[in-house]
Amino acid sequence: MEHIDVFRKRHRDYAANGRTRVCDPPLFFKSYMPGWKPLPDDQMQELIENLCNSGAINADGEWHDLPTPPKHFAEDSSRNPLSEDSHFRHMEEVVEHIILAAEETVRKRFAPEKRTTEFMCRPRHITYSEVEGSSQRADSLFVRKQSSYPPSFQAGRRRTATSDPRVYTADITNAGEFKLYTTDKDIVNDQLKTFGHAAHIFFNDVGRSAVFTFTIEGSEMQIWYHTRSHTGVTARFDIYKDKRWFIEFVLFNTYASLAELGIDPTVRRVMDEQNKLQYQFDVYPTPTSRKAVTYQTRNLIDEASARTIYCRAMRVFDVRLVIVNADVPAARILADQSNVLRDHWVYDDVDDERKIQKDILDRLKKKLGGGAIWREVLRHFMRIEEDGVVRYMRAKGKRPVTVPAPPNTSEAFEYAVQENPSGSEPSAPQVTTGLRSDGATQVRLQTAPKAEDVPLLRLHGKKHCRTTYEQLCKDLHRIDNPALFFHALCEVVKILLYFKRIGYLHRDVSPGNFLLYHLSGTLPESLSVNDRAALEQWITIVSDLEYARPYYGGSGHDPITGTPYYTAVEVQSRQYRFKTGQKIMQTLDAEGVYAPKNFSFNFYHDLESVLWMALDFAIRKSSKALLSRGSGVGKETAEKLRKYARELFTPDIHGSRERNSLIEMIPNAQELWGTLSGIYGDSPISTIVSLIEDLQDAYRALEKTTAQSHQLDNGRTVFSEDMFQDDIYIKMEETFRKISDHYLNHPDTFVLVPPADKAAPTQNPPASRAIQPSQAPHASPPPSPSPVQRKKSKRAAPAKKVKTNHTPLDVLMQDVHNDSNDDSHGKGAHLAAAASATQPRGSRKRLAPQDDDEPKSKRPCTEGQSVRRSGRIQAALEKAASEKKVPGKAITGRRTR
C-alpha cells in the first residue's frame, strides 16, 4: 500500500488532468443534486431571519460561533493563538443552529425524524474501514444516522463512557477539510486531502455511486462532487456573505435521501452463518421488472480496478441466489449453485453486454448457420443470467443509477502546482555584476498551470451496471501450465478470427478477459493435463464485451481501450507505423487514412494483443525448474527475463521505445529470439518471436495502399474489411498449438520471475496475504508486513508497519488514464480467479471493521484479516495482545492522551 501522501497526490493529479469542472453554486446544485429542491427565496429569508433573531448570526453578519479568523496572524503561525481544530470545532454549533431553524420555520419539509445524517467534527480520530489505508482522518463528517452495518455486527461491540463512537468509512456521506486561512499552500493541502478521502471512500464502500466532500479555507468554501466520470466543484463562495448556499449545503447533507447522497440502495451488508460480513446485491432482470432478484456474496474475486476514482470500478464476486431472505443468517436460504456477479461503470451511451453479445451471436449464426460449427462457437461465450443498469425503487417507479456529464457551461478547474502553489518566481540575484547573474534569471520555477493549458477532455456521463453469469471460470492470468495456456491462446485466436469474419472488434484482448471453463462445471484443483483429451475439457470463453463494437461502427468518443501490457503499439501511438518507405513523422502530416485523426482500431490490433499475451507468459513468467537451477544459472536466467520485462511491459498507456522497436524492427526481434532460445533450449516457445515478422508482413500488406477505405459515421476513415487476411491468424494458431503439444509431452510449471532481491520463485502467494486473486500472476509477492518495534514512552505513538507496494503495475496503471478521450480503461482479471470460490484456502473476503475494545480471543477470525487492517490499527492490536489491556481504554490508532 502506498504512503498516504503519495496516494492523495496521485488522485489529485488525475483530477487535474482535465477531469475537473467548476461552476457556480446554483448550477452545481441543479446538475449534481437534481432531486433536491432549494428553498424558495421567501423561505430562505425567513430561515435567515430566524438565525439572526436567535443570535446564531451576529450583528456583523457572521456566524456567532464561527467568526472570521484574525487575518493578521496568517503570516506568522508561531504567534497565532488559534488552532485549526479549536476554531472549526464550533462548526458543529453552526450546523445545529441551521438545522433547528429549518425545522422551526419549514416544518412540513424538515423534522428531526427526517434527518438522514448527523454532523461531527473529529479531526483526531480515524474512520474504520474494510480495506488497506484505513488510517484516514477528516476534519468533519456527515455520517449516516443508521449505520450500513447489520445490527448483529454492531451489537457485539463493547463501548464505554470514555470511548468515542466508532465511525465507519462506509457510513460517511460527506467529508470536510478546514484551514484557517486562504494561502495557496493551505488550498493545495485541503485539495490533496479531499481527493484522498474520495478515493478511499470509493474503494472501501462497495455500495457507493458518488462521494461528496467540501473544503473551507478561512471563510471561503467549495463543494466537491466526485464520480466515476469526473469531479465537479463549485466556485469559491463566502460562508458569511453567501449564506444561502452554505445553508442549502447543510440542509441537503442532513435531509437528502441516502441515494441522493451517493449511497447505492441496492447493496446491503449482512452477516452469514459463519458470522462474517457479506454483501447482498439486488438485480432487476429487465428494465420493466418490479421485483428484484437478490444475490449474496461468498467470496471477492477481484476489485483491483476499483482503486482509483475515474475508472470502471470493476468488482467481481462469487455469489449465490437468495431464495428466502431473512435478517437472521440461519433463516436465510441460498441456492446451492454458485454464480458470478460483476459490478462496474461504463459510459452512458454504451450498450449492455447482453445486447452486444446478442448482436455478435446473431451475426455468427447468420454467417455459420445452425449446424455443428455454430454450436462449437457458442461454447466460447458466457451464459448471462441478468444484465443491465442498476436500478432501485422509489415512489415514482425505478430510478437508474447514473452519474451525469458536467454541465455544458462549466469550465475546466485550475489547480495550483503542489511544489509551487503560488507560481512564484525566483528572487532577483543580489550580486548583479557577476558572471552568472544574467544566466541565473534564465531558469524559472515551475508555475501553476493555466486551465486552458490542460487538455479539455470530453467528459461523459456513466451508468452503473450489474451482470450475473452462470459459469464459474478461471482467467488466463492464473494459469501456470504452459500446455493449457497455449491451448487457450489457440482458441483465443479462433475466437478473434470469427469476430473478424462477422466484422466485429473486441478492443480489450487481455488474459483477464478470456477465461477457462471446465466442462465438468467445476474448477479442478489441479490444472495438470496429461493428454489431449484432458486438455480439451477446458473451453476458452470470451468476456467483457462492453468495448466490443462493429468494425464499421464507432462513437463520438473512441478512447484507447485495452490493458497497456497487451495493447498494440499502433493503438498506443495512435498512428499507423508500417507504411512502406515513409517515416512516422511524415505519416503524421499525411492526408487520408494515415493521418492520426483518421487512425482507427482494426482486426490486427486485436490479434497483436494475443501475441503480447504469449510474450508476457514467456518473459514475465518462466519454467520453475529453470529458475531453480543452481550455480547461478537460475539467477542469470531471471535477470535476462527481468530486463526484457522492464522494457516491454510498461504501465504507460503510450508504451515504450523498446516495445515499439520490437514490433517494428527485425534485429530487435532476432535478439529476443536468441535470448529465449538460449533459456528454453529445445522448447518451441521461442518461436513466438517469429510471429512478429509475420505480423509485420500483415501490417505492411495492409498499409501499403489507401485505395480501399471506408468512411465511418464518426468521421474516421478505416481500411476495408476484405483487406484483412486469415493467414496471420492461421500461422499464430499453429505456432501456439506446437508449443502446447510440446508441453503436453514435457510437463512443466511456469511461475513469476522473482524480483532481483528475491532468492527463489514461489508459485502462489502466501494464503495470509490480502491480495486479490487477479493480482497474483502480476507480481512476485512481497514479504508479509510486520510491525516495527517501538520505544515505550508516556505518549507512545503507534508502531509503524513495514509496507511494500504489492499492487502489480499493470493493475495500477489500468486506472491511471482511465476512460478519457485518449486513455485506457482499467480492469483486472475477473470471473477469473474463481478457482478461489471452490478453494477456501485461496479465497479472499472483505472484512468487517474490528472492535478494538473487544478481547481479541472473542473476535471471529477472518482469513487474511491481519493484513486487511491498516498498519496503525494492526500495530495497536498486536501490542494489546501482548500487554494487559486497560478496561475501557479505546485504541484509536493515534497517540493516547
Automatic annotation (TrEMBL):
Pfam families: Pkinase_fungal. Residues 816-826 have a biased composition (Basic and acidic residues). Gene3D superfamilies: Transferase(Phosphotransferase) domain 1 (1.10.510.10). The lineage of its organism: Eukaryota, Fungi, Dikarya, Basidiomycota, Agaricomycotina. Residues 754-897 are annotated as: Disordered. Residues 161-614 form the Fungal-type protein kinase domain. This is Fungal-type protein kinase domain-containing protein. Residues 789-804 have a biased composition (Basic residues). One of its GO terms (molecular function) is protein kinase activity. It comes from the Eukaryota.
